[in-house]
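Hello,

Our lab assistant flagged a job as stuck in the queue for most of the afternoon. It eventually completed. Since we weren't sure the result was trustworthy after the delay, we are filing this so someone can double-check. Below is the sequence as submitted and the structure that was eventually returned. Let us know if re-running is recommended.
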Amino acid sequence: MQSINRSQLFRASCLALLVTSLSFGIRAGILAKLGVDFQLSNSELASITATAFWGFPLAMVFGGMVVDVIGMKRLLVLAFILHLAGIVLTIFAQGYWTLFLSTLLIGIANGTVEAACNPLVTSLFPENKTTKLNHFHLWFPGGIVIGTLIVLGLSKLGLNWQVQVGVMIIPTLIYGFLFSKLDFPVTERVSAGISTATMYKSILSPLFLFMFICMFGTAITELFTGQWIGVLLQNVTDNAILILTTTTGIMVLGRGFAEPVVHKFSPQGVLLMSAILAAVGLFLLSTLTGNSVFFAALIFGIGVCYFWPTMIGFVAENIPESGALGLNMMGGAGMFAVSVYTYFMGGFYDKLVAQQLPSGADVATYVSAAPGSEMSTLYAQATTAAGPHVIQATLVIPIVLSIAFAGLVFYMRSRKKQELHAKVA
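-- returned structure --
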């Protein structure tokens, strides 16, 4: 570890994650504009958005299987190449399929970043895994805040969405350069000498499988809502994209001060409180209107703040034998669930909108209607009614998670008592 510069590697990792999150924030900010420019339905927008989410888990699972063999550095060089290609292709997109392919490339790049950086952070900070994963992952909501502000600022200046996407090239080039110059450690599993057979056995343990399933719900609650908030609530408030900025701003602060919270309440206690607050936040988002929606966003942001890094941190601390594969399977599970849910809910949203329009109406005609026309007004009213229904449907997930994590708290408390008795005996 003599030549390993922990602080520089950690900063470079955070920058790579920043590019990942910028892609989410900027895409969320321009999603409605893409729909208008390319005359895409909500189902097509959902399909494009979902592409990033299923490209991500593919890369994470594959990366988790090979990272111990090829090393984290090679994976991050690949991520850099894919990010650059995806960004450039997005800028020159001509329609649905080029947007689909560019989003897929960026999704694979995003997953490759996490496939390498999650085990890198746990290898660099084995004594403080959950806290440092929270510090690392604060750059995900941080990048979304920056991304949405970029969209707002450049839109005010009259610059098009291609320029907004192009901004991502700068941090991409910087993180690619930094990683090319730094030395990397081996993964924690390799360092500890844990066999591959033990690693695969650990991911079949009941506790890992339980967390794996719960990751579906925590990821959907956080990422589906965040990615679609501008679309779902675009006519409920004049500043729908600022709801995402508020939510993610709270997440940045929360993850930055994760250490005392995690140490006081334990990872499983934090997850239980998060699920309860996320449920309350979603309920308020689906019922409040106007500026009061920002209060709902505040509660929701506090709720989802610790979900992703604490889920991964729990596995790293309590099932360390699962190694990089375990961490990446968790992330992959989350993103895969979001991709499936997003695709399903895009169609559901289109059906809800169609139900609000006159019988037999062609939704595509209403989408492309001239601003201020009667058809445009009717479409706006239909989306205003449909958005909160999608959020209410999603509310079921954190309610179920609250029950699941309450059980986890009792289980871990019982396990800790058993371990103490065993030590005394």
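-- support follow-up --
The delay was a queue issue, not a problem with the job. The result is valid. Residues 6-424 form a domain with the Growth Hormone; Chain: A; fold (CATH 1.20.1250.20). The chain has a mean pLDDT of 87.
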